[in-house]
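Could you help me review a protein record that somebody else here produced? This is what I was given.
***
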Amino acid sequence: MKAVFACALVLLSLVSPSARAAAQRQLTYTVEAVPRRSGLRLSVDLSFSGGETGHTRLHLPSHFSGQRELYKNVQGLTAVSPGVTLADTDAPDVKRVTFLPGQTVHLHYEVAADESSPSGQPGAYFRPALQAAYFHFIGTTVWAYPAQYGKPLLVTLHWKLPTGWAFCDSFGASPADQQFGGTLEQFLETVYVGGDFRVLTVQASGRPVTVALRGKWKFSDSDFAALAGRIVATERDFWRDQNFPYYLVTLIPAEQPAHLGSDDGGVELTHSVALFQTKGRPLDVELKYVLAHELFHEWNADQMQTGDAPLYWFSEGFTDYYARLLLLRGGLISLEEYARGFNTLLREYAESPDRNRRGEEAARGFYSGTALARLPYQQGALLAAHWNAAIRSATSDARSLDDVLRDLKAAAAPVTADAVAAALRHYGVPDAAGEVARIIESGETLAADPRALGPGFTLHTKKMPQFELGFDGAATMARRTVAGVKPGSRAYWAGLRDGQEVLSCAPFVVGDPNQRLSLTVRDSAGMKDVEFTPVGDSLPVPQYARDKGAATNGACLAWFGNLPGAAGH
């Protein structure tokens, strides 16, 4: 649990040097949501106690999850305190602040509606959304802060909102004054929503989970809240961790125009998960998976940090594996849905043009939005399934990968590849370090483990058509101009060409070669409709098939470590 402190401002001239140092770790923000003709603005007043040097650096919002130049949203930055000055530096997101030693510094700025990034850009939901009826933002995209606050913080938030507005953030569901104690990272990685949100509270293992959502969906608010509560309870039970006095899940429609296809996402934050989903999507397996995946990061990558070297195959790949597994254990997806998802993973890995890229290349491309970015997810999930099967085989089903994760968490030390290998060795997996070196670092192909889905499933090879979009989807959607058309692809033969303007695009699912893609484009010859099936060459893909004579449904679920009461699903 992150500690919460009640803070009081004191006059620096009346306190000792040690107390003054403590006061320097305090930030106070007063935030007012101000409706304007151009849209909503956030008026922010920031106060902090200056250090003895008489100067510091002020960091403005910079980047988050692929979104850059967030400082352009900050307007009217001024010093309110007498004698305090602001000056530019070589970095556009950093200002130099000078003041009298120990002086209380009071600054003011506004955050305006985002005009630097069109709403149609993929991932634009990570930028501040400031509309007449609501706001939604991640802390790091709005808060300015002084450089000396890398130490533990004491943060006070004062809110001024229009009458009747709902409000929730990572610290609570009331706009009353809030106090938070923790690290700078924990403070910045937070979510704030206000306005026409619908707020519900459900219980997860006797602890409250607040759900705030807006927009129209193909499911009821209560059904989504119930789902969130069940997933939270299932994952907390897995980790044997109920130390959460408050938790928030938000859901908003991704404001991606319909003509640019779907754009879904989510992010785990301090005691909260923020979800962004395509308008009108149902309460399907993939939405359940996104919530389960992001929530699992509360432990894997948050409480269990990987230190300086990124270990994406562990933080993302293991999280992918357990997201679907815990949905199965919790009775939220069926055995058939679980197997279908695992087979999809195998197909995507087999089709990936980046399957044999080395580990350092995959790390550099993690935020690229390409197939390379998906590689650590695929490698880690497949290794997790392989190692789980190996542990069960070595221990006669007495132990599983669950024990490895719980041991790593209990160690309360940075998770490294060596630490994972040592934990696996303890449970009968002798060559995990060698497998990491070959598969992750050197990029060798990982063969599917016949034991990965337990009794009742048989591994076989199936000739399957590859998904081939036939053009660069990310670049095309970002620029609304067709790019990267592959000569000879079905997209090419259907008439798609580089440079055509995209007028509309029906939502499609990346990875599904059986769907029909439909776009309307315009070029020098005029407007035309382009339709095709995104099918490429066929290739052999390992797939699991249910062997109905080998084990009952209950026996299969028991092998997966299914929780009591879920055997009927």
About this structure: The chain has a mean pLDDT of 88. The chain has four domains: 1-195, 197-298, 312-455, 469-533.
